[in-house]
Amino acid sequence: MQDVIVIEAGRRERNYWLDLWRYRELFRVLAWRDLSVRYKQTVIGLLWALIRPVLSMLVLTIIFGRIARLPSDGTAPYPLMVLAGILPWTFFSTGLSEASNSLINNANLISKVYFPRLIVPTATVVVALVDFLISFSILVLMMAWYQFLPGWQILVLPVFVLLAFFANIGPALWITALNVKYRDFRYVIPFIVQFGLYVSPVGFSSSVVPEQWRLLYSLNPMVGVIDGFRWCILGGQSELYAPALAMSIGVTAFLLWFGVRRFRMMEKSFADLI
Amino acid sequence: MPDVVITVENLSKSYLLGHNTGVWASNHTLRDVIGREARNFTRKAIDVFRGRQVVQGDEVEEFWALKNVSFEVKRGEVLGIIGRNGAGKSTLLKILSRITEPTRGRINIRGRVSSLLEVGTGFHPELTGRENIYLNGAILGMTQREIRKKFDEIVAFAEVEQFLDTPVKRYSSGMYVRLAFAVAAHLEPEILVVDEVLSVGDAAFQRKCMGKMSDVTQQGRTILLVSHNMTAVLNICSKGLLLSAGRVGVLGDASDCVRQYMREVTQVKQIPLEFRTDRLGNGSVKFIRAYFANNCLSTINEVRSGDDITIVMELENNTGAPLTRFHVSAPIRDGSDNIICYLSSALQRNDFDYIPYSKTIRIGIRIPKFQVVPGRYALTLFSTVRDELADWIKGALTFEVQPGDYYGTGKLPVVEQGQFLANYSFCDMSGLSNEVASCDRSHLSDETARTA
């Protein structure tokens, strides 16, 4: 009739995932809190979610399109191609950097209340996702400006949004858990994010990468995500290189599994270490 | 049929502590420092490599916050967990509420647990009172529907109707605490784990909280309560658990636990006053000795109810000058840490306006017929010079009052019959018509007696 909770050293919660479901309301409330606090006491509020990608688009278009004269995908306008890469990249970078600090920022919760800790970083990534969805309006405006009509591929976009979400969660969980134990990671994250912008095909098309390196290049999970986005948004102008996509999905799945596993291993000691 | 809802078996929890050995302080040549840092770095690197916790310091020591703690709690019981600071109370609650994991041992819990280790956990300063009620409720494990249902009740309890849509960062600290407690007070779990949250808010609010707590008890919920407030423990708890240094000291009756706890606390305080370091104040005047004396001012070792006693305090004047506007207070606390009377120079006379200079000052408080029931008491000493705190020692003198012959009948009330021996007399008033008349007559008879 009643559920019995057993507390023991090293015991894996048998109903962890059930607990996660039970705490879905907390998840919703935490995400809502982060969202409503995010732009409190700012003047332009939500506009920040739009300004950042626009500015990066301008800079990257000038550097890679004008100065380096790299080719675009097919006949797609260069700024549009860059924007299609920047949106998922911004999602990834904000998600990763905010999620990795999320546990430390919520230290008072962690040390005073029990709930499946997975909720905290995941809620943070969801907040980044909302920002990401808002910034889509820029894309719509840009497409109208260039009078560029997407093809049927745009319907597949939600699948890639999901892929982007998982590609984000996996590493975020791992790093946030490590961050609780070793604060060194606080300094590693900005570096990863900065570095990743140039390693991932954000300012340029991945078709620039020589054929024999494409598969290796796709070990970066964001390659598959960004390529997928471009394929959906730019219609047939950007071709999808299937082996690379499969590789990226594989890496994403592995990182997700690995991240959740590591997170759960360290989860119990968070309250002692934080 | 009371059944067991919580079973704790051999619970232990260890933490790693880092120490800095004296190397840093004593010989800090560059070579020593480099050597030390290199050793530390190597150790940390190995720790990281093995996935262990990084501990600052040269030496790592294992510290057992809890050691082999076992107990059971039955449905509807209110267990008071007491103990001195660092006895492991909070660690125990943290393990029970699944915030941290034990190192060894096992706990079985039947039923939904809500823990309240802090009021206002997760309150966000930028959000309004209304939003924070929902946020805090969700954090404490209430569903949105439950909160919506109790929303008005919570707001009324907290008395913040006017400020519901103000961000809580603009709240006064009292309002903040009231709102936080109000949310917590409306939790309805089967098992409630509470840590020292009764000590917030003003007196009226505290009374309200105590009322709420006893309501909850009457509904047959199980409560585990950590508190330093012995009166609260005695009032609310049916059972007690005294932890000392991570082990179970006493498990049983709440009053037994409180008694043992008070004994433990006072034992530490048997150091002579001069050597006590747990004092506050600027030290311009310091208590160096306090003792009981009889009418002839010779020291007595035993105090009995009804004795004429004098509390003698010896103070050291460190100002090098005569004392002006000097004030002394000596509250007496009973075994449950309640102040039963407040002896103060400010109440009884004007403060000592002037005490000529001498290194040692002796001040006495004469108490005719000590009106206190037998038991264990502690005297706190407190003094100010020109409204500045000079010296303050809690539990400066602990003493046992022995049974004495206060009423001249050889009888005293028993423990449950109060703590104070009033000065009264009984008489037969049936022959007198009414009060006024008797008063007048006695007045008259006095007059006639005088004229006669």
Multimeric status of the protein: heterodimer
Radius of gyration of chain B over all CA atoms, rounded: 29 Å
Distance between the termini of chain B: 78 Å
Beta fraction of chain B? 25-35%
Query: Which architecture name of the largest domain in chain B does CATH use?
Result: 3-Layer(aba) Sandwich
Dominant shape of chain A: globular
Judging from the principal axes of the Cα atoms, what is the shape of chain B?
Answer: globular
CATH topology description of the largest domain in chain B: Rossmann fold
Provide a count of the helices of chain B.
Answer: 11
* DSSP helix fraction of chain A: 55-70%
Mean pLDDT of chain A: 87
Give structural notes.
The complex is a heterodimer of chains A (274) and B (452). With 274 residues, chain A is mostly helical. Chain A is 69% helix and 2% strand. Chain A has 12 helices and 1 strand. Chain A has helices spanning 16-22, 24-38, 47-67, 78-105, 107-110, 119-146, 157-181, 185-199, 214-217, 221-233, 242-267, 270-273, and one strand at 4-8. The two termini of chain A are 36 Å apart. The model of chain A has no long low-confidence stretch (mean pLDDT 87). Chain B is of the alpha/beta class and 452 residues long. Chain B folds into 3 domains: 77-86 and 109-267, P-loop containing nucleotide triphosphate hydrolases (Rossmann fold, 3-Layer(aba) Sandwich), CATH 3.40.50; 273-402, abc- transporter (atp binding component) like domain (Coagulation Factor XIII, Chain A, domain 1); 422-452, no CATH class. Helix content of chain B is 29%, strand content 33%. Chain B has 11 helices and 19 strands. In chain B, the strands form 4 sheets. In chain B, strands 10, 12, 14, 15, 16, 18 and 19 form a 7-stranded mixed β-sheet that branches. A 6-stranded mixed β-sheet of chain B has the order 5-6-7-3-8-9, with helices on both faces. The longest helix of chain B is centred in the N-terminal third of the chain and has 21 residues, at 30-50. Chain B starts with a strand and ends with a helix. The relative contact order of chain B is 0.09. Chain A binds chain B through residues 2-11, 25-26, 28-30, 33, 36-37, 40-41, 106, 108-115, 181-182, 268-269, 271-273, and chain B through 15, 48, 53-54, 94-111, 113, 115, 117-118, 121-122, 124, 126-127, 131, 134-135, 138-141, 143-144.
